[in-house]
Amino acid sequence: MERTLAIIKPDAVRNNNIGNIIAMIQAAGFKVLGCKLTRISKEQAGEFYAVHKERPFYGELVNFMSSGPIVPIALEKENAIADYRTLIGATDPAEAAEGTIRKNYATSKGENAVHGSDSVENGRNEIAFFFAESELIANSK
Ligand code: CMP
Question: What does pTM read for this prediction?
Answer without folding.
Answer: 0.95
